[in-house]
């Protein structure tokens, strides 16, 4: 992969220089100005050349024109920003995890999202193995004008405690209308369909069927064999079309095979046929009008999508309004409001338990035809015949015995999809109002109020007839139930700021902001469930509980942060820029002795092209450097012990034990960063380079450190730990060809971050972050990069794997470092070609490194599903594992695949280390072909612009090392987005058509 990437860059760079030299004299287009304006912290507009820190702006066209609509703008940032790592999972309506410049805190962390200078909530929600997505998906994509990524501490210092993980600044569009001042109308419509990328789904062996050993189950009365119904593995007898066997559907009265034995063959329709081709329809209309001093824009967008799984649907309606109006020549007003109404049915289950796809990847019978299961479900769920006899429609391939049709381990996947589905409704609104008054020509005062509110109702169902499973508040194993989570989140920001700009001399001026902010956050969450099952099947309500429900799990918090800030930006002769910022915060979640703290920053930018007069060959060259501090406060209820009700016993309240001991002496966590960089433009912007080097140190992190339960707690809240990040970022822009009718642009992003956990707490060298099946865990370990994978490894002797002489299996060595989830580097290459009305673009997205533990391979190889378990004579003769005995002599013990617990592959023989894979990938992430209809063709119509595009996303995984799965498709957001591949949905190649008309 390294040779491919390096070779491509050398070829592009050399061709770009050659063609640029050839065209330099005849280039008739004006060189774009370097002094472009970008939006920075607090919505402040700055000349890009004056910035002393790294930031990267992405225009709306680069975000959306070249790809299908993902439903979450975060995922459309993949490969487009140096230093920004985007992890997108395949969960229906699921999360996209954003990480800027590496993990800075022990608990991970996402950047702050800001719209037009006002922060918005981007909370990731996961409930009982369901990924409900992150709130960034609520943003109306049609409203976005640009996104500016503030990467380092100096860029985000003005956000104080919230700027530790960087900031994503979103700027919304203003109304423009037509040149004659009349209303403009834009209508866009898009349709897309997905096709499974088969490289991200298992390839099954087709030589052997159900069973844990190569023999059938019991015999029927006529002497024929019954299949191994209760076995959820494919280690059974060899297929033989001349052999008749009673299978699961032989006991289904609605089946054509009822009471009949059928040929023992591999299924015609394997699990991949269970999935649908997901389709998405998106329609939007925008009305806008703009004149000097006033403009208005209204947008409505409707999105309807169905997922890979049966019975999965998502409907989203977005409404937004933006008005800018000058009330007087000196008094300017701005108003923006957006509302999202979303309903989702059938989100995919994540993780191990009750996940249908986990069954397909780990525990399945290759003789089972999923289309027969579909027919069986719809035939048996009919109210006329549904009863306890047929498990209310849950006719499963995994029945316990010939006489007992109850599921042994797995429900019928269609019963699971149509009966045990989740649903959720989300209402989201974000509104701000702003007034600016020009006191003097060089001083203005702005007052602003923003309000962000989201309501989520999430419901979970367990239908009567289901396999008993852990469910609800008690987490007891039951066969039916209903649970719901209601979450309300609000955030209010009050801002008052004064903007100033003064000329000290003709060539020296100073500008800046003096202001304050009050932020109030409110969270109210209630979780409740039935207990003991449902009284009446099909009625999902808390009142339909067989037993008295337990006390609901209620969480309420109100927090406030008061802040003041000041900035000063000095411009010396348009050649040297010096900026300083200072912010002070007061947080309600910290003790009075530590709840006031401040964050400074200082930046400098030197325009070398002006000083050295290099414009003949290098039209712009800037050197920059900065130092800054940012930080973070505590979550609510960390200062004093708090209790949760567990119900009433004999009229007396019972409370759950406190797991984490509080700490009344917490301090804010802090991050300190130093950064240097340079930006250069050559050959009239044909070649642009931006380079940054940074070093970050984060200390006093707020964590719940595990302690011995003998002290009465399992954890203690403390300030501890230090994480260092050091990295490089490179942005390269190339314009190999540029003429009146033809242009070719290449944008390259590359970054490398090195991370190290320097310390935790005296006497502590490891912090457990997440636990996986197979005894594997995600950890922060001193001396290692954050994200260490710990589990069982082989035992080695002189580099050879050691065999147990008693069993012939590998000796395993537990609690070893077996990988790390941190990638070596990430990058992207985007090509954009325009010829007259035609446009063509594609994006190559890359990641090198970042280990992944595959629970699917850990179990799936052992259960005999994958093609590797039936190649050649693997199942027909003893296997001698490669290795040596403890005395160094070669292993000579043969393992029978059947007598020795399922052969030489999988969790019963190999340690977890065998199933850790390199997470590198190269993807054709986006591609599009567009055509802008000529004006002559539109003459005489009311349409003045029309464009049609064919777009695609995830069209080709050019390279990957993880078998049968997408290296990006982790469990969810947050800590679940690192290093764990289990039961993930297959990736789809999405292809769509977009049309846009402007009237």
From TrEMBL:
GO annotations of cellular component type: cell outer membrane
One family name in Pfam for this protein: TonB_dep_Rec_b-barrel
Entry keyword Transmembrane: yes
GO MF entries: siderophore uptake transmembrane transporter activity
A single BP term in Gene Ontology: siderophore transmembrane transport
Keyword Iron-sulfur found: no
Domain TonB-dependent receptor plug: 53-167
Signal peptide as annotated in the record: 1-22
Annotated keywords: Cell outer membrane, Membrane, Receptor, Signal, TonB box, Transmembrane, Transmembrane beta strand, Transport
Annotated ranges, domain TonB-dependent receptor-like beta-barrel: 483-859
Family: Belongs to the TonB-dependent receptor family.
NCBIfam families membership: OMP_RagA_SusC (TIGR04056), SusC_RagA_signa (TIGR04057)
Protein name from the UniProt record: Membrane protein
Taxonomic source organism: Chryseobacterium angstadtii
